[in-house]
């Protein structure tokens, strides 16, 4: 379902151009508005649809297998931390409104700045541990698993 | 060319490609390298790039040791069984013992992970999968990477790795171009973590026209992980191990949650279960060690994905298609119905669009399934990628050369699709591999291994010339013709991609030949691949966007060539249902219970192939239920 852009809604702001993972949303030099330059490299990932501040981008199912007359629309709200979908089928019998959370916390506030956490000790550097380990592996006092701790060894060839 | 040259110097850790693997690397590198210069070069925008750009509805690799669910070795055995024995168990064990700490941090950062209301533990979709509302998975991990990195360069297509001119086989950074400005970017770095992606679109897809973009793996996954590393002379492993997916027809929507959580199942056109009737013959092909239906039934030992594909493919070939997913039962429950739709919206919106377009209501109709064209990647149920060192406390000598996740090129590390032999890492495992690679890269630098790197101006100038050649070529020959795309002196990137897909499909086991190939076909394929390589020297790019497509094509070509060499080398059919060697239709453990390892000489383009031993984890209990069953048999 390649994306397309409604002429009257797009103001050429370029948010879609900035976000498209496939580099296929470009600004048309004549109309100064965005359009999909390469529909057969579109994954219908909806990144541009979600990023468009004017809801100017929509999707029409791939011409080789999707009949016309359907609609899957979305509004993603970072402030509220939710995404809302509406699915309408071609025959109108399916009309679903679906809501899902996209985060449980305010954006980025709970991701640590690793440059300001205490530096690792030489022991930690020499160990197999990563940042926040072993604590975060089990969230208790348990240590990291090793071959020894789990009663394992490695053997060459087919044994099973 | 009027494009500027922009040099970023003195980088310690360059992350080339920032999907889940790359973001994990950038994030973790800051902890072990407080004063190190960490730079990300990403082809798109890291907020929505890589395979997880549109989100995920499940994290498919989570042990749950915290809830007493699984130990790392359990996951290793599962991956081994699924891949018919061909995995790097040291790397898998290492990933599995760390992966939970990544997931627990995701939750702390704000990832909505569903909980089982009765037990309080994460809601399981299957033994290894937990369910999430992961629409914003990628923006979340991107935020973590941005907090750690000194600089993020979005929209840089990395085309080549830079090599040290002072010491052979040592990496020195990377080069590429900005897909918007066209500028030439040089990154001089002590280490590089390749987080770039596996390959979609190297085999001819089932879809035609517009639908060519509706591939299972993202169309922007251009095999650059392999293109970059093969180009630098790194050894690769298991490149023959392409994957075929049984998915909802045309939309390739995910089936995992449907099978595991919604308890839907498949049947043929007559409404019959069809898998079991193909298993006796299949057991003769692969041997009882790999398919033991009785043991699977008793112990819930999983039947390898490829073997279930085999039953699907044969059922359809016998005239009993289409294969349907029976959704009509589960979807009567409104809660499960909602989950079914959310599952698509969270990670494959296109499938929801398709069902809306075709009036499929799974409550009243069982949707069709299909088997996809093959994909080459290393983080789902397959393990293509670079031959990397494992961790020192696990790996045997053949698997260890100093630094975890370092390839055979010094200072060059991998994560996610880039690392070979580590299937079933998925998103969380790829992120974890990035973290492991970053820690090892810091150690490599601290150990003084990156001293005295020299990059000559000659190398920088040569690569610049290489990069813009498709645009130069276009300028020179464009005006020989009036208009249009037919030119005797060049092909455009789309034409080249079409040719690659057609030849991979027909000679290397694509959908139109029922995934079948043999020695003769592969030799023809290699020959055609060589001429394509010559023609790729004449690929023409009209603008910078086409230049991006040209380089993606060159990376796909390098990956594909490796696929053919590996497929030719392994003289057996190890994964029926992924592909068949018609001249060797059985699993041959006597000769091929090994990993395949290749190296392409960057100077000559010649391949050398070798076998590497397989080491398996051996413990007291192989698989609890299986062990019990065996004990009962003997008593």
What do we call the CATH topology of the domain at 246-371 in chain B? Flavocytochrome C3, Chain A, domain 1
How many separate helices of chain A?
4
Structural class of chain A: alpha+beta
Quaternary class = heterodimer
Distance between the termini of chain B: 79 Å
Identify the overall geometry of chain B.
Answer: globular
Level-2 CATH architecture of the domain at 246-371 in chain B: Alpha-Beta Complex
Strand order of the largest sheet of chain A: 5-6-7
Tell me the structural class of chain B.
Answer: alpha/beta
Q: Could you say what the CATH architecture of the largest domain in chain A is?
A: 2-Layer Sandwich
Average the pLDDT over all residues of chain B and give the rounded result.
95
Q: Tell me the number of structural domains of chain A.
A: 2
Give me a quick take on this structure.
Chain A is an alpha+beta fold. Chain A contains four helices and eight strands.
Describe the structure.
Chain A: This is Adenylyl-sulfate reductase subunit beta. Chain A: Keywords: 4Fe-4S, Iron, Iron-sulfur, Metal-binding, Oxidoreductase. Chain A: It is an enzyme of class 1 (oxidoreductase). Chain A: GO terms for molecular function: 4 iron, 4 sulfur cluster binding; adenylyl-sulfate reductase activity; metal ion binding. Chain A: Pfam families: APS-reductase_C, Fer4_7. The complex is a heterodimer of chains A (160) and B (635). Chain A is of the alpha+beta class. Chain A folds into 2 domains: 3-101, Alpha-Beta Plaits (2-Layer Sandwich); 112-153, no CATH class. Chain A is built from 4 helices and 8 strands. In chain A, strands 5-6-7 form a 3-stranded antiparallel β-sheet. In chain A, a hairpin with a 6-residue loop joins strand 2 (25-27) and strand 3 (34-36). The mean pLDDT of chain A is 95. With 635 residues, chain B is α/β, with parallel strands linked by helices. In chain B, strands 1, 2, 5, 6, 7, 8 and 15 form a 7-stranded mixed β-sheet that branches. A 4-stranded antiparallel β-sheet of chain B has the order 14-9-18-19. The mean pLDDT of chain B is 95. In chain B, 39% of the residues lie in helices and 15% in strands. Chain B has 18 helices and 20 strands. In chain B, strand 6 (156-163) and strand 7 form a beta hairpin. Chain B has a domain at 246-371: Flavocytochrome C3, Chain A, domain 1 (Alpha-Beta Complex). Chain B is globular and about 70 Å long. In chain B, helix 1 packs parallel to helix 12, helix 7 packs across helix 9 (305-320) and helix 15 runs antiparallel to helix 16 (544-569). Chain B has helices at 20-32, 72-82, 89-109, 137-148, 224-231, 256-260, 275-286, 293-299, 305-320, 334-347, 349-357, 426-446, 457-477, 493-508, 519-536, 544-569, 589-592, 624-634, and strands at 5-16, 38-41, 56-59, 130-134, 151-153, 156-163, 171-178, 184-194, 236-237, 246-248, 265-267, 324-326, 369-371, 385-386, 412-414, 516-517, 580-581, 594-600, 607-613, 615-619. At the A-B interface, strand 5, strand 6, strand 7, helix 4 and strand 8 of A face helix 1, helix 3, helix 4, helix 10 and helix 11 of B. Strand 8 of chain A pairs antiparallel with strand 20 (615-619) of chain B.
């Amino acid at each position: 379902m390649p994306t397309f852009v409604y002429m009257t809604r797009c103001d050429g702001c370029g948010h879609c151009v900035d976000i498209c993972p496939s580099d296929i949303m470009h600004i048309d030099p004549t109309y100064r508005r965005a359009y999909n330059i390469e529909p057969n490299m579109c994954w219908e990932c909806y990144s541009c649809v979600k990023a468009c501040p004017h809801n100017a981008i929509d999707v029409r199912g791939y011409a080789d297998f999707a009949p016309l007359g359907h609609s899957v629309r979305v509004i993603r709200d970072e402030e509220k931390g939710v995404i809302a979908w509406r699915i309408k089928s071609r025959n109108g019998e399916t009309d679903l409104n679906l809501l899902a959370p996209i985060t449980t916390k305010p954006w980025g506030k709970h991701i640590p700045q690793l440059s300001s956490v205490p530096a690792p000790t030489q022991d930690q550097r020499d160990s197999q541990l990563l940042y926040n380990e072993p604590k975060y592996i089990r969230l208790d006092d348990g240590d990291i698993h090793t071959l020894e701790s789990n009663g394992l060894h490695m053997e060459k060839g087919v044994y099973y | 060319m009027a494009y500027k040259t922009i040099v970023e110097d003195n980088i310690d850790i360059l992350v080339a490609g920032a999907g889940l693997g790359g973001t994990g690397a950038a994030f973790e590198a800051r902890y072990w390298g407080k004063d190190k210069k960490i730079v990300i070069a990403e082809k798109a925008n890291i907020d929505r790039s890589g395979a997880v750009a549109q989100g995920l509805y499940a994290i498919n690799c989570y042990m749950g040791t915290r809830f007493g669910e699984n130990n790392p070795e359990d996951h290793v055995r599962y991956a081994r069984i699924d891949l018919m024995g061909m995995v790097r168990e040291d790397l898998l064990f290492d990933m599995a013992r760390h992966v939970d700490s990544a997931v627990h941090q995701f939750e702390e950062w704000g990832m909505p992970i569903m909980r089982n209301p009765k037990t309080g533990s994460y809601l399981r979709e299957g033994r290894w999968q937990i369910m999430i509302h992961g629409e914003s998975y990628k923006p979340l991990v991107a935020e973590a990477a941005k907090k750690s990195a000194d600089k993020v360069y979005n929209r840089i297509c990395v085309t080549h790795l830079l090599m040290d001119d002072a010491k052979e086989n040592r990496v020195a950074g990377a080069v590429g171009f900005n897909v918007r400005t066209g500028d030439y970017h040089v990154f001089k770095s002590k280490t590089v973590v390749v987080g770039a992606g596996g390959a979609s679109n190297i085999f001819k897809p089932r879809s035609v026209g517009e639908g060519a973009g509706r591939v299972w793996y993202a169309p922007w996954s251009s095999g650059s992980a392999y293109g970059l590393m093969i180009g630098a002379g790194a050894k690769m492993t298991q490149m023959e191990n392409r994957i075929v997916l049984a998915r909802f027809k045309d939309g390739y929507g995910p089936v995992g949650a449907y099978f595991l959580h919604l308890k839907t199942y498949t049947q043929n056109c007559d409404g019959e279960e069809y898998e079991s009737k193909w298993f006796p013959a299949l057991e003769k092909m692969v041997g009882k060690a790999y398919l033991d239906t009785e043991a699977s039934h008793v112990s819930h030992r999983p039947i390898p994905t490829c073997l279930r594909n085999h039953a699907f493919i044969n059922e359809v070939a016998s005239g009993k298609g289409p294969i349907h997913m029976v959704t009509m039962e589960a979807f009567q429950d409104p809660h499960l119905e909602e989950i079914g739709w959310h599952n698509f919206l969270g990670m494959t919106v296109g499938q929801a669009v398709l069902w809306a377009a075709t009036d499929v209501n799974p409550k009243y109709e069982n949707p069709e399934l299909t088997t996809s064209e093959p994909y080459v990647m290393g983080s789902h149920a397959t393990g293509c990628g670079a031959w990397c060192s494992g961790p020192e406390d696990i790996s045997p000598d053949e698997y260890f050369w100093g630094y975890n996740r370092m390839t055979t090129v010094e200072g060059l590390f991998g994560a996610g699709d880039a690392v070979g032999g580590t299937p079933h890492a998925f998103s969380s495992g790829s992120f974890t591999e990035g973290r492991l690679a970053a820690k090892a890269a810091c150690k490599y630098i601290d150990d003084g291994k990156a001293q005295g790197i020299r990059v000559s101006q000659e190398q920088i100038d040569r690569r610049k010339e290489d990069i813009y050649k498709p645009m130069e070529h276009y300028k020179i020959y464009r005006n020989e013709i009036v208009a249009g795309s037919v030119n005797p002196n060049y092909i455009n990137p789309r034409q080249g991609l079409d040719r690659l897909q057609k030849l991979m499909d027909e000679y290397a086991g694509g959908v139109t030949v029922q995934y079948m190939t043999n020695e003769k076909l592969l030799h023809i394929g290699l020959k055609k691949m060589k001429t394509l390589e010559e023609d790729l020297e004449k690929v023409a790019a009209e603008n910078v966007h086409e230049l991006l497509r040209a380089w993606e094509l060159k990376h796909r070509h390098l990956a594909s060539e490796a696929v053919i060499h590996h497929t030719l080398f392994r003289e057996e059919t190890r994964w029926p249902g992924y592909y068949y060697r018609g001249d060797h239709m059985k699993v041959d453990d006597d000769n091929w219970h090994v990993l395949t390892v290749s190296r392409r000489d960057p100077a000559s383009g010649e391949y050398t192939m070798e076998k590497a031993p397989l080491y398996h984890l051996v413990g007291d209990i192989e698989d609890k239920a299986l062990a019990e069953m065996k004990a009962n048999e003997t008593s």
